[in-house]
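Quick illustration, no need to memorize.
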Amino acid sequence: MSLDTPCRKRLAVVAAVLAVFLAAGWAKCRQDRRFASELMENRYRAVAVQFDGWQIRHIRAGDRVDVTATFEALMAGGSKRKVTATMLQNVRVMKVDRAWRRGEKGTLVLKLNPVETQYAFLGPSQADLGVALRNRGDDEMYPMEMSSFAKFFR
């Protein structure tokens, strides 16, 4: 089947526009691959940490967060008790990948030092992680002890 000249011209225009969009998309992809490493300061790491999708709904790149871990701790006397500890404080969010469906997990890419990086990798295997959004002006590090319902109801 042969195409008439006006159809060929339209097809050429569509192909040219598509080529421009594809080239722009390729450039954006290449830029995104470099983006995280270019933002990193020496001695910091970009670490992806998964959370339940509802927890990260209002978190944006550039925000600062605290990460908590809830787990069963062995107490004195051999009893077990659920406790929560703040394992990372005042860490910068570099990127947010949201969950698209209910019940799925989303991912925060956090800017961490090497010690924080180890905790970020250990946390999901040992505990249920939570994330708390900080006020933009709150950059203080707080001394935190583990919390439990037993302490709360004393």
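Residues 110 and 154 are 36 Å apart (CA to CA).
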